[in-house]
């Protein structure tokens, strides 16, 4: 495990594995990025980042022990989610910020009482997952994290349909900042 | 036909072979032989051009230029095919025999035009095609269209009209690409130098079909002209 | 301009980063389950590129980018074949005039495909050069024998394009993406034409040269296997896309040829699994 506590953050971040064999990633760099994101979001919880480096796929999900400020947040990422797609097997700080930031925001959401009904990440339907991704990606963009809106619009359309109503739903979720789970699940 | 209306005896169908607005006429500047010679020169040059454009696609880094070259490559291949098919109609049963450059200078021109290969020489590549060769094509085709017999050589005119449309469109594409690429005094110098170098060889060649390309040089023949 | 153009010199703007098959094969990661030896499901899910995959839109974006750079290389390959050989009767490294015309036509078609792919990338939220460009496609277009190029490019590469476009068209259809489905349908029509072009010229030019035909078909098999991308194409659920048999028939592939490619795809998948197993043993990782 690589333990990092960024000076400007109170969150203790650990990364697994500590040394990467399949990809050229640096656990300390990952931990620093997550600590910075946590600082921006005001998250002080201990955070575990678990990277599956044996697959190039890019699934990410989070788990949180409880909705409290001392519960451990676990961020799971397949290696593709942190990868520089131009240079396979190399790390992308931009991609990592975007992928890990998105699920860190979810963990942040889960600490709200109005997210108590939200299913665990692995139990979300494809549609619920897409709606929450849109909500998170929009907020990330406003936090200054490099995010391609059209990529998320396309993802959203794939789940809900290619029509104007769906685009309006996307725009609502993207531009919102203070939604509960029921709002997210119903499209903002 | 059974239901045709009954024509009155006084209603004649006899009309002049040429309507009053049809002013086409027989006289033309080129014999069959001379036309075949010109068409052979057109085909050779169109071939060299489409081969060059095809070859250059891999050498230019600018994506929009790459795609235009691929598109224009086919336009010129189609022109070469039109001329290839026209030659037997002009009594040349072995089209390869007349598929030749107008002269040695024309051959040299193509060699000089296709010399640039490096990825940083897109301006030089485009100048050769769009500021020297294609304007010469437009000139030679226009001269041919306006001076050949509108009746006896109608098939050539029809092909030239289609081809000229392509040439104008492609020239405009190429010129606009050049204007977007030439943005510094150094670019201007490079474009002008390449144009001057190639233009000098083209002047030696006299144009696509040689000295008589647009009727201002030595006319090789007017045989058959009426 | 040189007669033959090496793959290392392909000109790209600074957004594009190129890689090759050897580099890609150094990647010990895999999405397939290396412990399975048949077509069983891996990691609990099908790898077929369908909208119900959890990463469907990103997977489609990645494949679409691969298609775009493939189209760029196909454009370059067709252009080079129009350029690199003298006109002749097809012997002694010459090519018939009409074959050159076909290559020029293909260059135009591929240029349109690049245009279409660039528009689609924009639609899907992909930036030009966002993914590494594998130059394997152009490598197949580098042979000094024009007939080997036709076998490698028109039969193997364009055949692969038929398979990929069919999958993407279906993806667009199921997802209800009218733009994607429309574009893929049109590109698919062109690819069938290109494969047929390759099949016809291969037969014509080698009509009196059976050795050359055999060599070309062998080369095509090598390229076909390469284009399986370690089993990315195949009948198994572990493969992202399958062989588009119906469209391949339209393009002039015989049943035997389709079966052979299918078998090679399967072998490529198993070989890839074996390579990954060995890699994992070497790095001591737990698969």
Structure description:
Chain A is built from six helices and five strands; from the N terminus they run ββαβββααααα. Chain A has helices at 27-41, 93-110, 126-142, 149-160, 164-175, 181-185, and strands spanning 2-4, 13-16, 47-52, 60-64, 73-78. Chain B is mostly helical and 226 residues long. The longest helix of chain B has 28 residues, at 154-181. The model of chain B is unreliable at 219-226 (pLDDT under 50). Chain C has nine helices and four strands. In chain C, the strands form two sheets. Chain C has a two-stranded parallel sheet with strand order 1-4. Chains in contact: A-C, B-C. The A-C interface holds A 21-23, 53-59, 79, 85-89, 126, 129, 148-155, 157-158, 161-162 and C 17, 19, 23-24, 26-31, 43, 51-52, 54-58, 60-62, 122-127, 129-132, 175-179, 280, 283-287.
Portion of residues within helices of chain C: 55-70%
Evaluate the radius of gyration of chain C: 19 Å
**Tally of extended strands of chain C?**
4
Query: CA-to-CA gap between the ends of chain A?
Result: 39 Å
Query: What's the mean pLDDT score of chain A?
Result: 93
What distance lies between the first and last C-alpha atoms of chain C, to the nearest angstrom? Answer: 50 Å
Write the layout of secondary structure elements.
The complex is a heterotrimer of chains A (188), B (226) and C (287).
Chain A (H helix, E strand, L loop, with lengths): L1 E3 L8 E4 L10 H15 L5 E6 L7 E5 L8 E6 L14 H18 L15 H17 L6 H12 L3 H12 L5 H5 L3
Parallel strand pairs in A: 2-3, 3-5
Antiparallel strand pairs in A: 1-2, 4-5
Chain B lengths: L31 H25 L6 H27 L5 H4 L5 H10 L8 H26 L6 H28 L3 H21 L21
Chain C lengths: L17 E2 L1 H5 L30 H29 L1 E2 L6 E2 L1 H28 L8 E2 L1 H4 L6 H30 L2 H28 L4 H17 L18 H6 L4 H29 L4
């Amino acid at each position: 495990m690589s333990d990092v506590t960024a000076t400007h953050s109170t969150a203790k971040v650990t990364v697994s594995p500590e040394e990467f064999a399949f990809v050229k990633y640096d656990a300390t760099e990952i931990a620093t990025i997550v600590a910075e994101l946590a600082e921006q979001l005001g998250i002080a919880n201990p955070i575990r980042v678990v990277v599956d480096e044996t697959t190039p796929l890019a699934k990410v999900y989070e788990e949180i022990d409880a909705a409290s400020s001392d519960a451990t947040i676990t961020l799971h990422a397949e290696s593709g989610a942190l990868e520089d797609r131009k240079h396979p097997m190399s790390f992308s700080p931009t991609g990592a910020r975007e992928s890990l930031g998105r699920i860190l925001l979810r963990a942040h959401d889960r600490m709200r009482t109005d997210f108590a009904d939200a299913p665990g990440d692995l139990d979300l339907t494809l549609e619920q997952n897409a709606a929450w991704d849109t909500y998170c990606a929009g907020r990330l963009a406003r936090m200054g994290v490099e995010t391609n809106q059209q990529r998320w619009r396309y993802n959203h359309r794939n789940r809900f349909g290619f029509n104007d109503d769906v685009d309006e739903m996307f725009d609502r979720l993207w531009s919102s900042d203070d939604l509960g789970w029921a709002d997210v699940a119903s499209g903002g | 036909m059974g239901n045709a209306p009954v024509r009155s005896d006084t209603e004649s169908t006899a009309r002049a072979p040429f309507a009053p607005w049809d002013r086409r006429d027989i006289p033309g500047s080129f014999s069959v032989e001379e036309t075949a010679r010109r068409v052979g020169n057109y085909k050779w040059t169109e071939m060299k051009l489409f081969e060059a454009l095809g070859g250059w696609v891999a050498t230019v880094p600018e994506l929009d230029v790459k795609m235009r070259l691929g598109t224009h490559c086919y336009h010129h291949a189609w022109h070469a095919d039109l001329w290839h098919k026209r030659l037997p109609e002009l009594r040349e049963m072995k089209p390869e025999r007349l598929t030749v450059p107008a002269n040695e200078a024309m051959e040299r021109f193509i060699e000089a035009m296709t010399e640039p290969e490096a990825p940083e020489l897109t301006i030089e590549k485009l100048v050769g095609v769009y500021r020297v060769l294609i304007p010469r094509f437009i000139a030679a085709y226009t001269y041919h269209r306006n001076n050949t017999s509108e009746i006896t050589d109608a098939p050539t005119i029809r092909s030239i009209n289609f081809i000229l449309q392509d040439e104008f469109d492609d020239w405009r594409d190429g010129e606009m690409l050049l204007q977007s690429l030439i943005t510094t005094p150094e670019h201007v110098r490079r474009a002008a130098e390449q144009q001057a170098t190639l233009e000098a060889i083209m002047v030696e060649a006299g144009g696509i079909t040689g000295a008589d390309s647009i009727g201002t040089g030595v006319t090789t023949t007017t045989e058959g002209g009426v | 301009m040189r007669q033959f153009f090496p793959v290392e010199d392909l000109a790209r703007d600074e957004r594009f980063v190129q890689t090759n098959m050897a580099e890609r094969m150094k990647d010990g990661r895999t999405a397939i389950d290396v412990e399975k030896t048949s077509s069983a499901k891996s990691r609990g899910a099908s790898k077929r590129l369908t909208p119900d995959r959890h990463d469907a839109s990103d997977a489609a974006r990645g494949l679409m980018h691969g298609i775009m750079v493939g189209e760029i290389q196909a454009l370059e390959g067709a252009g080079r074949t129009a350029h690199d050989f003298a006109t002749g009767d097809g012997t002694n490294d010459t090519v018939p005039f009409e074959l050159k015309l076909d290559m020029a036509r293909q260059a135009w078609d591929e240029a349109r495909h690049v245009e279409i792919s660039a528009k689609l990338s924009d639609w899907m939220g992909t930036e030009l050069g966002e993914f590494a460009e594998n130059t394997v496609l152009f490598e197949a277009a580098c042979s000094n024998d024009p007939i080997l190029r036709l076998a490698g490019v028109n039969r193997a590469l364009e055949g692969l394009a038929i398979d990929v476009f069919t999958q993407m068209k279906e993806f667009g259809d199921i997802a209800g993406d009218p733009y994607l489905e429309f574009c893929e349908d049109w590109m698919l029509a062109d690819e069938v034409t290109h494969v047929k072009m390759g099949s016809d010229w291969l037969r014509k030019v080698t009509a009196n040269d059976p050795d050359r035909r055999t060599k070309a078909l062998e080369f095509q098999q090598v390229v076909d296997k390469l284009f399986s991308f370690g089993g990315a194409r195949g009948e198994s659920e572990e493969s992202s896309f399958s062989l588009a048999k119906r469209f391949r028939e339209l393009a002039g592939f015989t049943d035997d040829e389709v079966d052979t490619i299918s078998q090679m795809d399967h072998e490529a998948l198993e070989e890839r699994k074996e390579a990954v197993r060995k890699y994992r043993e070497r790095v001591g990782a737990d698969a």
